[in-house]
């Protein structure tokens, strides 16, 4: 289409878009129009006065054609021109950025890889494109993958980069060419950017400096047939033996609705396997899978689909995720205001769990406590902790049936701080002295709870026991069905079935509403059909989380005659809830890496948060990372306070060896050790480039549009030199291009003359 | 932290005893009248109690109400066996001291332990599925028990699910053999062992350093030997543990805690014994509800 336009109008549409129209004939437009009027009037008069065998209508038609012809001629005589701003040859630079990542090795349907196309298009010996560009611009080549650098020529490309970072490529090229007149940047890529940083950030300075980016999209938009496994999200660390539930996303093109196995495995064994029926082309299918990790230490979990016959890209069938399996014994403080069977059965449910230590403080009489599972005779000897340091040594707190007035105001605030500042988990259980019935409404702790406390019913005179009592037929909400802590059996496909036959519980606290931002996971239907009770709800609060379990006798799920003696629903539920309660609870000193798995040579940020025993942030600590390399050598790296945030220290580490690194961070204040934490870092070649490897036209188009450049495909690339000449920035000059000799105008005149001649012949006047 | 000494228990029991014998006090009169009336009544026959029995005799909440209004129901095991026990007065062995002993125990227990307990007795058959709603069950005169197969299954399921059985008031080798035979049917291959003195059962609420033999009312008042048979001179607190080491059955052998609870208000019954009985009783409740 562009070629036809160029044939008729002499130039391509882009030239007309860039130029301004002008008339180049000497003299004023008024004189020209006067001359045209006179000539036109003579022509009209000639036709009007002629008295041949013609009607008035015929004469009018012929006069019209003749006037039109004269008008076109006059237009040509006025010398129409396009005024363009074109770049001065050899006065400007042009940056050519070539994607050097592994996805460029993918072959498209014609069997030519994207990399081979680039090499051919810029071959110094044979490339006309390179020659034409070279004649007009001083060329500067850049390669980019996870980073960007200058190249002498395209022959240095290796296509071995493991990530594509378009943004940093544009940044590097812009900065390197900032001191020279720059006509633009040419970006050759499949557009498969796989960094977390948005490209938009790099476009703003280009827009500001008026540098257009000409993008060239390589490869096919859809690589098919292919199956791709989506990104898998797992927690950074879990307790040994914890159940993990993960959503696995599978997308296919070209395989139809086939069924494929999804396998979860570690270095030792297959952890889970499930058959998944694929969705329509390009539509992701989500399947939920559950598994457990039983061996402590850093573990690589691999999610994979076996390669299918004829599959174009097999590397995107697997994802590796690193997770640290911790063998810690996590201490939970359980305060119960009176002997209740809930104490016995909750403790019993997790008694076999070596990773949980439920330290129990049971009030048996006023100011008399029975302590269980304490580490030493001094622990909790004075009753409930009175200092932050004493309370904050626990990772979670369970409040049973104990009234708010049992605590001092300081203790209530300390419990709230335990969640918001220390990041601990809080669980309040239902009971006659819990929630509103225990006078908790209006306290600092009520703020933390995920449920809305309703007015406690008043006990009638002479009434026995609890004022409100209802049965609760418990079932999971949709959020609960999807929650790992509420999976009671092996049959993860049907999370509701197991709940349906569990006997009803009872509740003495009326709670029907969760707070904004909180999530109800279990609800209980009332026998009289009243508004369902919220039985289990949770919410994040500050750094920690708060749970409310409003039934008072979950032990019924262990003891009831309808529950088989060997059924583990009760044990499983409490083990999972308590593990969830302590999951992710931070230490006073903790360290994270911004990416667990990197390529050797790629910088990784270490971030440590440092607090004292009361979890108050410390900014004057001496923080040091001891990094043990895969070969056993130990490096020491100081971390500096970031200033931006209290208690946050940072350093960058560049691992150079392939394998597993252990990073231990130790924080000291004076001679006092505040704490230490360990994390792991793994270096290995990455397959990220094979995920989402199809051409991302939309992204490349957007980069071009936002910088006032243009998007090209390999087939339209030949016009690039001309286009940059008229659209590029840099040193330019004003150029006038004649339009009077456009073939379209001559064709129009010939057509008008031919039309008049044909009309005469038709009417017998010639 | 304030602790509760044995003296406090003794004073509580003594005060309760004083109330029981003082004439003219409205409370004791009412209580005494009620007890007399209950003594005259026959205990409910084995089986699920009728609605009338629930309301009039057992004082249980209505049948359609879940047993959740209170945290604790002092539950007595109803079992099959020979009629026996002097104090059963011809009634089934399980009903010895019933219901006065139960009520009196609850009154004192709630003064000693911060406990939301139902104030009245609660008797449940061992073959009744309802048994599982009360994870702590008390059985007396077990030397006369002769469990049916259904009761064996019921008690076994109760214990394996996590329930605890407290046994009391049986004496000598013959009664022991009968009880041992029945327990062997319930829990085959689970041995009965002495509970060691350092077990938390003896320190859960009160520190108990010595196992005393608690005599029946008559022997206690008359100062006769505390044992009832020549082969029952040494009291024992024995237990059956599950494979995880959890205590399932507490066996008070050659002793009669129940009589001490029941007759604590008798000024002639030695305070030493009723104090010990309440201390051990409180410990069994606290321990049984937390382990």
Please explain how this structure is put together.
The complex is a heterodimer of chains A (766) and B (291). With 766 residues, chain A is of the alpha/beta class. Chain A has five domains: 113 residues, no CATH class; 162 residues, Rossmann fold; 88 residues, Sandwich (Immunoglobulin-like); 244 residues, Class I glutamine amidotransferase (GATase) domain (Rossmann fold, 3-Layer(aba) Sandwich), CATH 3.40.50.880; 95 residues, Immunoglobulin-like. In chain A, 25% of the residues lie in helices and 30% in strands. Chain A is built from 19 helices and 35 strands. In chain A, strands 18-17-16-19-20-25-24-23-21-22 form a ten-stranded mixed β-sheet. In chain A, strands 26-28-31-30-29-32-33-27 form an eight-stranded mixed β-sheet, with no helix packed on it. A six-stranded mixed β-sheet of chain A has the order 5-4-3-6-7-34. In chain A, helix 9 links the parallel strand 16 and strand 17. In chain A, helix 4 runs antiparallel to helix 19 and helix 7 runs parallel beside helix 8. The model of chain A has no long low-confidence stretch (mean pLDDT 89). Chain B is of the alpha/beta class. Chain B is built from nine helices and seven strands; from the N terminus they run H-H-H-E-H-E-E-H-E-H-E-H-E-E-H-H. In chain B, helix 1 packs across helix 9 and helix 5 packs across helix 6. At the A-B interface, helix 9, strand 17, strand 18 and helix 15 of A face helix 5 and helix 9 of B.
Task: Outline the fold blueprint.
The complex is a heterodimer of chains A (766) and B (291).
Chain A: H1 2-9, H2 13-18, E1 20-23, H3 29-49, H4 56-77, E2 80-87, E3 92-99, H5 114-121, H6 128-136, E4 137-144, E5 148-151, H7 166-176, E6 182-189, H8 200-209, E7 213-217, E8 226-229, E9 237-239, E10 243-253, E11 259-265, E12 270-277, E13 285-292, E14 297-304, E15 318-326, E16 330-336, H9 341-349, E17 356-365, E18 368-372, H10 388-391, E19 396-399, H11 409-420, E20 425-429, H12 444-448, E21 470-476, H13 478-481, H14 497-500, E22 505-507, E23 519-525, E24 533-541, E25 544-549, H15 556-559, H16 569-582, E26 589-593, E27 597-598, E28 604-610, E29 622-628, E30 634-641, E31 648-653, E32 659-669, E33 672-683, H17 697-706, E34 711-712, H18 720-727, E35 732-738, H19 743-763
Parallel strand pairs in A: 3-4, 3-6, 6-7, 7-34, 9-15, 16-17, 16-19, 19-20, 20-25, 27-33
Antiparallel strand pairs in A: 1-2, 2-35, 4-5, 8-10, 10-13, 11-12, 11-14, 14-15, 17-18, 21-22, 21-23, 23-24, 24-25, 26-28, 28-31, 29-30, 29-32, 30-31, 32-33
Chain B: H1 6-21, H2 26-40, H3 51-56, E1 75-78, H4 100-112, E2 122-125, E3 136-140, H5 149-161, E4 164-168, H6 172-186, E5 192-194, H7 217-222, E6 236-241, E7 247-253, H8 257-262, H9 271-288
Parallel strand pairs in B: 1-2, 1-3, 3-4, 4-7
Antiparallel strand pairs in B: 5-6, 6-7
Helix pairs in contact in B: 1-9, 5-6
């Amino acid at each position: 289409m562009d070629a036809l336009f160029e044939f008729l109008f002499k130039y391509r549409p882009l030239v007309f878009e860039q130029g301004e129209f002008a008339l180049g004939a000497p003299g004023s437009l008024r004189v020209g129009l006067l001359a045209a009027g006179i000539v036109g009037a003579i022509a009209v008069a000639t036709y009007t006065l002629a008295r041949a065998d013609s009607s008035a209508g015929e004469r009018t038609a012929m006069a019209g054609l003749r006037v039109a012809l004269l008008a076109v001629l006059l237009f040509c005589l006025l010398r129409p021109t396009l005024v363009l701003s074109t770049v001065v040859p050899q006065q400007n630079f042009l940056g050519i950025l070539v994607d050097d990542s592994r996805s460029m090795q993918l072959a498209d349907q014609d069997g030519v890889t994207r990399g081979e196309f680039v090499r051919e298009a810029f071959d110094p010996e044979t490339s006309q494109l390179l020659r034409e560009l070279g004649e007009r611009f001083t060329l500067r080549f850049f390669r980019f993958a996870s980073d960007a650098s200058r190249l002498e020529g395209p022959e240095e490309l290796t296509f071995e980069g493991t990530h594509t970072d378009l943004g940093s490529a544009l940044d590097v090229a812009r900065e390197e060419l900032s001191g020279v007149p720059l006509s633009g940047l040419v970006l050759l890529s499949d557009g498969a950017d796989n960094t977390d940083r948005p490209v938009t950030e790099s476009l703003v300075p280009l827009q500001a400096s008026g540098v257009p980016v000409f993008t060239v999209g390589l490869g096919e938009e859809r690589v098919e047939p292919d199956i791709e496994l989506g990104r898998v999200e797992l927690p950074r660390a879990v307790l040994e033996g914890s159940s993990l539930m993960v959503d696995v996303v599978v997308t296919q093109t070209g395989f139809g609705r086939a069924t494929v196995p999804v396998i979860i495995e570690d270095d030792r064994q297959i952890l889970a396997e499930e058959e998944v029926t694929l969705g329509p082309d390009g539509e992701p299918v989500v399947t939920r899978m559950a598994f457990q990790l039983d061996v402590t230490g850093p573990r690589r979990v691999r999610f994979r689909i076996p390669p299918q016959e004829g599959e174009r890209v097999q590397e995107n069938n697997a994802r590796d995720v690193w997770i640290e399996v911790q063998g810690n014994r996590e201490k939970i403080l359980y305060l119960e205001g009176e002997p209740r069977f809930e104490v016995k059965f909750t403790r019993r449910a997790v008694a076999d769990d070596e990773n949980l230590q439920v330290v129990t403080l049971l009030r048996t009489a006023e100011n008399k406590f029975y302590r269980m599972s304490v580490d030493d005779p001094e622990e909790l000897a004075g009753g409930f902790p009175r200092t932050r340091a004493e309370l904050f040594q626990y990772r979670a707190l369970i409040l049973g049936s104990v009234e708010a007035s049992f605590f001092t105001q300081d203790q209530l605030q300390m419990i709230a701080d335990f969640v918001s500042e220390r990041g601990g988990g809080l669980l309040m259980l239902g009971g006659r002295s819990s929630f509103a019935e225990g006078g908790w409404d209006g306290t600092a702790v009520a703020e933390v709870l995920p449920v809305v406390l309703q007015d406690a019913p008043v006990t009638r005179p002479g009434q026995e026991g609890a004022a409100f009592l209802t049965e609760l037929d418990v079932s999971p909400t949709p959020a609960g069905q999807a929650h790992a802590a509420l999976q009671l059996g092996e049959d993860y496909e049907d999370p509701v079935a197991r709940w349906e036959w569990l006997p009803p519980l009872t509740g003495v606290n009326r709670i029907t509403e969760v707070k904004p931002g909180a999530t109800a996971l279990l609800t209980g239907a009332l026998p009289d059909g009243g508004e369902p009770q919220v039985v289990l709800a949770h919410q994040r609060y500050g750094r920690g989380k708060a749970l409310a379990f409003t039934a008072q006798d979950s032990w019924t799920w262990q003891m009831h005659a309808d529950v088989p003696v060997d059924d583990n629903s009760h044990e499983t539920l409490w083990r999972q809830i308590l593990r969830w309660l302590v999951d992710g609870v931070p230490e006073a000193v903790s360290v994270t890496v911004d990416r667990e798995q990197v390529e050797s040579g790629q910088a990784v940020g270490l971030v440590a948060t440092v607090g004292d025993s009361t979890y108050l942030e410390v900014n004057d600590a001496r923080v040091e990372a001891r990094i043990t390399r895969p070969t056993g050598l130990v490096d020491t790296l100081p971390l500096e306070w970031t200033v931006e945030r209290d208690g946050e220290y940072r350093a960058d580490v560049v691992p150079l060896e392939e394998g597993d690194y252990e990073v231990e961070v130790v924080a000291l204040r004076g001679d006092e050790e505040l704490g230490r934490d360990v994390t792991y870092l793994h270096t290995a070649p990455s397959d990220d480039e094979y995920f989402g490897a199809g051409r991302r036209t939309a992204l490349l188009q957007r980069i071009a549009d936002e910088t006032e450049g243009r998007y090209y495909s390999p087939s339209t690339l030949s016009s690039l030199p001309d286009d940059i000449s008229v659209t590029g920035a840099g040193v330019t000059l004003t150029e006038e291009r004649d339009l009077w000799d456009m073939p379209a105008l001559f064709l129009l005149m010939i057509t008008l003359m031919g039309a008049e001649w044909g009309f005469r012949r038709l009417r017998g006047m010639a | 932290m304030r602790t509760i000494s044995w003296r406090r228990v003794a004073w509580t029991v003594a005060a309760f005893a004083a109330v029981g014998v003082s004439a003219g006090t409205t409370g004791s009169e009412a209580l005494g009248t009620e007890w007399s009336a209950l003594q005259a009544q026959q205990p409910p026959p084995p089986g699920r109690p009728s609605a009338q029995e629930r309301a009039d005799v057992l004082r249980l909440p209505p049948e359609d109400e879940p047993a959740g209004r209170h945290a604790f129901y002092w539950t007595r095991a109803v079992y099959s066996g020979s009629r026996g026990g002097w104090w059963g007065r011809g009634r089934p062995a399980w009903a010895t001291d019933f219901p006065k002993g139960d009520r009196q125990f609850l009154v004192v227990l709630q003064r000693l332990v911060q406990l939301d307990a139902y104030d009245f007795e609660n008797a449940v058959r061992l073959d009744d599925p309802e048994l599982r709603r009360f994870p702590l069950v008390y059985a007396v005169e077990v030397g006369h028990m002769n469990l049916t197969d259904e009761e064996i299954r019921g008690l076994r399921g109760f214990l394996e699910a996590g329930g605890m059985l407290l046994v009391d008031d049986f004496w000598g080798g013959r009664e022991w053999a009968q009880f041992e035979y029945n327990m062997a049917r319930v829990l085959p291959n689970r041995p009965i062992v002495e509970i060691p003195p350092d077990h938390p059962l003896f320190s859960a609420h009160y520190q108990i350093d010595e196992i005393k033999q608690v005599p029946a009312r008559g022997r206690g008042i008359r100062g006769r030997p505390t044992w009832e048979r020549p082969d029952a001179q040494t009291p024992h607190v024995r237990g059956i543990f599950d494979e995880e080491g959890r205590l399932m059955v507490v066996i008070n052998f050659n002793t009669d805690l129940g009589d001490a609870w029941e007759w604590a208000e008798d000024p002639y019954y030695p305070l030493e014994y009723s104090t010990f009985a309440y201390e051990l009783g409180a410990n069994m409740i606290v321990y049984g509800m937390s382990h």
